[in-house]
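Figure S7 source data.
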Amino acid sequence: MKVLVTVKEVATVEDDFEISGTEIEETYLDYDLNEWDDYAVEEAVQLAEAGDDVEVVAVTIGPERSEETIRMALAKGADRAVRVWDDAIEDVELLDVETKAELLGAVVEEEDPDIVLSGVQANDDSFGATGVALAETVGFEWAAVVNALDTEKVLDEGVASVRRELEGGIEELTDVELPAVLAIQTGINEPRYASLRGIRQAQSKEIDVQSLDDLGVGADDVASSLDVTAMYEPETESDAQYLEGDAGEQAAKLADVLREKGVVGE
Amino acid sequence: MSADVLVVADHRRGDLRDVSLELLSAGRELADEAGGDLHATVISGNVESLAEELDREGVDRIHTVAHGAEFNHDVYVQALTALAGDLEPEFIVVPNSVNGLDYAPAVATRLDRPYVSDAVDLDYSEGTLEVTREMYGSKVETTVDVAEGPFAVSVRGGEWPPAEGVGDAEITAFDVDVDEDAVRSKVKGFEEVGGGDVDIGDAEFLVSIGRGIEEEENLELVEELAEVTGATLSSSRPIVDNGWLPKNRQVGQSGKQVTPTVYLAIGISGAVQHVAGMKASETIIAVNTDPNAPIFDIADYGIVGDLFDVVPALIEEFGGEPPSV
Ligand SMILES: Cc1cc2nc3c(=O)[nH]c(=O)nc-3n(C[C@H](O)[C@H](O)[C@H](O)COP(=O)(O)OP(=O)(O)OC[C@H]3O[C@@H](n4cnc5c(N)ncnc54)[C@H](O)[C@@H]3O)c2cc1C
Ligand SMILES: Nc1ncnc2c1ncn2[C@@H]1O[C@H](COP(=O)(O)O)[C@@H](O)[C@H]1O
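Tokens for the predicted flavin-adenine dinucleotide complex:
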């Protein structure tokens, strides 16, 4: 059995930052593995540990810098990785899920996995769409916002028995035929920390870089229909009253507010 | 293509979800800008009564697709593909709900429409759709232009007012020949989770903790604060994901909705899914080191400061002894 995990390196923004054009200036960005993908990687590794002969392949679309992040997935137990990149996509708006689904779809065709695990959303652009768009592109079944997966049933019966986490503390119990893409929700498992041994081993694992040519995808197929035209800090709608001073003074003022609202004694 | 708008209602276990009426408002605006009609569809469930609820002012036509009792994304994708083929709407507008996440990207892909998710504002002029959406945990807003339709877009809940009044839409049944072989997922049931001894929905005063607390051991600090002030402890999602507090303490979209007299958010950024669960609180107070944290946008009182300084001082204000963390 083969499990493909899509992983994205995401940028987080420092508290103070500046925007230039339609981007946040590079110096204010830090990079990390997308939180949701960390859970997807863990779920994949758990499948591999529970079954015989399960291969876990991590795939990303990203520039060379992202290899550092992809190594995290390798250090946690993925067997190898594929990184899709090409000069032709450098300037493409990678917000467009159609573009991403096309590229990831080409990798799915090549790898022929039984199950693909993605994250519910990338916490930089929060599009929440790539996994399901990928499934439709390659003709797989799917489930979005999965917070439980029956590992044994995947291995023994070839069906993904999942829980989908709906709003308001309700979960939907659903069986999905394989092959399928599951968009994984946080909390489904406890992602492990990479061990020192894992980190060392990851250094020698393969990251296979695939260009558009390698994947047989034409530059026209990845042209984006979306165009980011502006980025700005939203005008604050805040009419909050700020409690100023050092921590002691702030706490004293806050205590007064709480007493005034009548929620604490005295 | 027509200049029409098709919105897709969200419902679960017999109830129309609030966002459905908000979609009608968003859809009506687009229809006015484009000079088209507003269509709505309700798929599966008790479609007749749901359609009546959807019949608000400004809705021109409602299409009911009776198939099965509950949401199934394979059925939705087939139904919407057929409807879109028939109506050729310039815009398909869906909710950015958990079910929206489960069918909208597939529908857009199958119909070969560009897709933009989680819109907080929409603007259509001269053939271009401009979608306003947030990035980086609501720290920035972006406008995304799609130059050529037909379009598909999902809309964030709570951003448009619910459509009101009683409409006179033409309600018709739309027949879809569902290919059962292509329905490869089966919904077997539902389960309520997050029960237990404490109902944070009942609390008058919630001390709510987020990822700013950093380590499980540090929870002692806010537990002590709750103790000395008589508050109930709740949290954002990552605290529950980490297993530091049980599910019944989680506030938000996938947790509980709360409306206490005072909601004290400590080290919580104010992500949209969190805010969905607490924005109706009477008084919101936020403690956060980041002056740009979106939680301050909905706060009545704000403290820009480090919780590891502010919380111990607050415990002392109420005569307690801060634990050393
Ligand atoms: C489908 C779906 C459903 C979801 N449902 C929910 C839900 O029900 N509830 C929910 O909460 N989330 C939910 N989420 C997750 C949500 O998107 C956010 O990831 C989450 O709310 C973030 O929690 P947080 O604010 O605690 O963490 P963060 O966003 O990491 O924020 C931590 C904050 O702490 C501040 N901070 C750090 N150190 C300190 C310090 N020393 N003193 C003071 N402040 C400090 C930081 O400035 C930051 O603002 C859902 C997501 C999805 C996709
Ligand atoms: N550039 C990318 N490379 C690999 N996987 C991605 C990429 N972008 C998104 N994904 C996957 O799709 C999920 C949802 O992302 P998004 O639709 O952008 O919110 C992420 O959690 C990843 O698993």
